[in-house]
Amino acid sequence: MLHLRAVCPPEQTDQAIELLRAHAGTAHLIVHRGAAVAPEGDLIEVDLAREAADEVVDSLCALRLDRTGGITLEALDTALSDAADAAEEAAPGEGADAVVWQELLGRTGEESRWNATFQAFLVIACLLAAVGVITDSPVTVVGAMVVGPEFGPLAALAVGAVLRRWDLLRQAAAALAVGFPVAMVFTGAIVLLGDAVGVFDTAAIVGNHEVDFVYQVGEASFVVALLAGAAGMLAMTSAKSAALVGVFISVTTVPAAGYAMVAAVAGSWDRAGYSILQLFVNLVGIVLAAAIVLILRRRKQRSGDLLRPLSRG
Questions:
Q1: Contact status, residue 16 vs residue 65, Cβ threshold 8 Å
Q2: pTM for this one?
Q3: Among residues 104, 114, 230, 306, which one has the fewest Cβ atoms lying within 10 Å of its Cβ?
Q4: What are phi and psi of 152, to 5 degrees?
Q5: 98, 130, 158: which is the final residue of a domain?
């Protein structure tokens, strides 16, 4: 279940209430007359079955409440109520399969912005990957995968392309275009300094090691990236967000960036080149698969809309 709050101009409150009462997927409708201060108006609260949320939010946006008032959504972990159970039963489909598009836009928009925190996480992740490569530690490389924040902008690229939100597309592309080069340059400088003072031995990467999979790009790399992108977008568009951890540790984006810098400092330009190619293959595969998942889910949801009951009957 989701909890919706809407700040509504008084002259539109009755219309909004009627809309919410008529929908089969709503429960616990509450109205606070004159409770909203900025902007002024009435406060409406209602619990929604997740599979009904997208239609309800679109209907409220059609009343321009997103402009004249405000609409917020938050997840409910527990709802002990026969009315809530009835709403979930009446709403078509399964909650885990439902996509709340406004929620997805808000989430990807927030996670795709380039800022100091995003850059710091990416730098730390690349440094962890570099240390894992130098010490031949797969565990450290996996840790770098988990720390890396790059899936947010990659998901935003897919969402922006499918929904034609060019502002989101530009924002995500800028985060990646700035974030990775800055992180790689910083990582290269730290590795070079560490190699000069004897903390790191970049020459150790020459030979066969457990972490060589990072730069060994091939068809399997693209397949893994496709699978990870599909799983990641399924997790973001459903209630199965815990699956994102598996996505983070299945692709070699950050590790490839870190390996490239270590190989460059060591003078192993062939490995550095393959690592950059690995990075590119993973980025493209993730975005492509994520976009395909979004297209398929959007088509399925539109088909379901044709059969969706509009009221409690």
A1: yes
A2: 0.80
A3: 306
A4: -55, -55
A5: 98
